[in-house]
Specification:
The chain is built from five helices and no strands. It has about 80 residues and is mainly alpha-helical.
Length: about 80
């Protein structure tokens, strides 16, 4: 299966830098109104799940970065 997103590896890196587990990230996303399972977080991080635009915004907020960084790797 082809990878479906470009932000997954940066999400995983930022999550680990924050000392969060995938379950922590799932919980924080749910608090932001993003319905997602831990399995979906795994797929997102490994590039096998598409990431919606509103999810990128929520991920950036939770991971204390910017949507631009998640999308391009540039701050």
């Amino acid at each position: 299966m082809d990878k479906r997103n470009i932000v997954g590896s940066r999400v995983a890196t930022q999550r680990q830098r924050q000392g969060m587990t995938q379950t922590d990230l799932m919980s924080e996303l749910n608090k932001e109104g993003v319905e997602i399972t831990r399995t979906a977080v795994t797929k997102l991080e490994t590039g096998f799940r598409c990431v919606r635009d509103y999810e990128v915004v929520a991920l950036a907020k939770i991971l204390k970065t910017t949507p631009q960084y998640l999308l391009t790797g540039r701050k």
